[in-house]
Sequence to fold (311 residues):
Amino acid sequence: MSATRFTYLGPEGTFTEAALRTLPEAATRELIPMVSVPAALDAVRNGEAAAALVPIENSVEGGVTATLDELAAGEPLMIYREVLLPIAFALLVRPGTALSDVKTVTGHPVAQPQVRNWLRANLPDAMWESAASNADGARLVQEGRFDAAFAGEFAAATYGLVPLVTEIHDAENAETRFVLVGRPARPAAPTGADKTSVVLWLGDDHPGALLELLQEFAVRGVNLMLIQSRPTGQGIGNYCFAVDAEGHVSDRRVSEALMGLKRTCPHVRFLGSYPRAGVAQGDGRAPRPGTSDGDFTAASDWLARCLDGRP
Fold:
């Protein structure tokens, strides 16, 4: 395995590259752009890279399905870190292009819902066609295939373009969440502000099936931060669920919830426990009364006394 390489959703100039460069360890690694999320993750699976940074969730569009599906299928991988990056787009054009010249625009499919209102107000007649990434859209503009691309302003210099309009976003404070993914290993020690990710498969379709899964978390006081259904590919109505839970797998409330799920689900894929982005170590939400590790230990001790016939 190449411990000196990190891959990311490329080409150069993507928001993913910008997010990756916020990690201190990125300064000591060779950063390799890949054409797609599957390609970036497969490089980790086959040992060409130590880790990959890929987008997994957007505050406007929700989950990034390519990443969710890749993590749910194939050779297992684990999440070790997450990065939150504020997202604002620039309209990148070739030098000399005016707004009235823009008849065709491009960008990543996730970008379109984030600039839809701006497009309607400023370029109502422009034709949109999706690109593999926002940076790839910039490359296509450079080649003359489109008049403009929505991308990060920082991508302009890479592709010889100029930002015609900046700070474009329909939703204030839009963010994208990225995850650093590697091969499975022991999770990092808990920080007191952690997140645990899993994928769950329903055993069979019956009334309350999803509720039964959620109750494994609820009765132990585990807060869920994301739940998203994804088709399994095995027919209409067959779904798995990507879940982010507050806490670390070593927390008793989380570990017991996962054991309960493992007993009742046909398949549970553990995707890792890792520090939450934007939350300082030790600043996570305090467990609800009755759900701390100490509470679980006290309950176990009480049960042991009952079994021993002690008062």
Summary: The mean pLDDT is 92. The first helix runs from residue 15 to 20. The chain has eight helices and 15 strands.
